[in-house]
Amino acid sequence: METRSAKKIKNCADANARYHRLSESEKKELNKKRAQQQKRKRQRNKEIAELEAVLRQTNDIVDDSQTVEQLSEQKMRTKWTEFENLRYQRMSSEERDAYNDKHRMCQIIVKNENDEIVDVKEIVKNENDEIIDVKENVKEDVKAHNLRKALSARARYHQMTPDEKKLYNQRRSEAIKRQRLENEALLATPIELINDEIFERVQNVIARNAKRSENARLRYQRMTPEERKEYNRKRSSYYKKKNVKMEQE
Question: Are 138 and 169 within one domain?
């Protein structure tokens, strides 16, 4: 606890030092931005509360585990967005330039024939150190590589015996559950304990969750009315069983 407190005090002292090095106009601008952020945050929370109250009155939402989970994820994304904004504001001009350069550069990672990781930065420059636009080619290579891996894994699965499939499915379910618990613990990390490594891991988790949700939404849109009805029935049945199990525990 002493180490955490000391780190928090040091971060506050550094932030204060950076603030006092600003000119009067810069301080005024920073204070104005912070006031606007706080105002937007209060307004957003007020609108969300009003919307939830209206939806509850019309029974469009109920306080079941699914709704609570969705709201919790939304609040977590908002929390991390605010943390990232504050972190960016505390950076010096040199740190901001490095941060912006990092995020402008495409960070697609691929593997070469020797299964070694190759950063796209290493393959978008020619002999004269001139940048070549090969982003689309790299994306297609990644898609083809992932498709080959998926087809190989599917073929191996269908070659298994029933007992091997059962064991494989059990191990896969345990691994997915373990990963989900680790992600939940990571997202619940207190702000004062967050470092650059944890922050990057959390960003990856949020990005994966958002991509998974978007893919699920698109799959649902492509369903026929009958398929949607069956999907909703199975989903409702799953959450009812889950709630009963939680009550029994």
Answer: no
